Amino acid sequence: MKGALIGRGRLAEVYAWGDDQALKLFYQGRSSTWVKNEASLSRIAFETGVNTPAVGEVIEVEGRHGILFERVDGIPMLAEMSAKPWILIRAARILAEEHASMHEKTVHNLPTQRQLMEQSILSASALSPAKQEAAINAVRQLPTGNKLCHGDFHPDNILMSTRGAVTIDWTTANMGNPLADLARSSLILQLGDLPPGTPAMTRRMVSAGRGLFHKTYLKHYFELRPENQEQFVAWWTPTVAARLGDGIPEEKEQLLSLLAL
């Protein structure tokens, strides 16, 4: 049965369920097909061996669709940094380590990164057709891949637990080029708005430490995976264009200014 509220995000609330599970209960309007797709993506990620909760059934509760997951006792990395700001550098290194480890996993049955990026770019109504075409051409000229990519990897999607850092929320999971996934995380870390209801103290902490956290994360990632940094830079423009397609009002002007540079 549905227990205490554990957390709340943009798309869903998370409740305790029984003794050892958690229910991710989506807000009204999310179809059963959409929720089943997230459950499938989460299951595929779990089967690669990445540190993420096991996936249970898709159920309906109080007229809303939800997914049962293995319950992990932990708190989001963002919340832990808010309570303990002195761990910022260590947390950034952990984030890099989890991302690098994820990018070692090969997959064959996830949506392709290229397809998802192109769809997002075409959804970016703030861009002219010419700029959409230019961004899509940039995506098509860059190497693809078959590595596990999260698509929304940031500190609020990492639970700090007794079993280590646990990655959650695989809604945008895909297979592709790790550098594109890294570019998206880099953009989120620099510009991403915090979830609604984030305490003022956390907002001040993030504002003060964002630059150092981002720099430490990228530096450690490239220490672990010495990739082509020129290619990483080349992913920047199409990543910004695709992020515009997510339709986050708080980021629109900053994203457009980046594309104007």
The whole-number mean of residue pLDDT values reads 93
Task: Could you tell me the CATH topology label of the largest domain.
Answer: Aminoglycoside 3'-phosphotransferase, Chain: A, domain 2
The radius of gyration computed from the alpha-carbon positions, rounded to a whole number of angstroms, is 18 Å
What's the CATH H-level homologous superfamily of the largest domain? Aminoglycoside phosphotransferase (APH), C-terminal lobe
Question: What share of residues are in beta strands?
Answer: 15-25%
Total DSSP E strands = 10
Arrangement of strands in the largest sheet: 1-2-3-5-4
Q: In whole angstroms, how far apart are the ends? A: 53 Å
Shape: globular
CATH architecture descriptor name of the largest domain = Alpha-Beta Complex
Low-confidence segments? none
User: What's the number of structural domains?
Assistant: 2
Helix content: 40-55%
Biggest beta sheet attributes:
5 strands, antiparallel
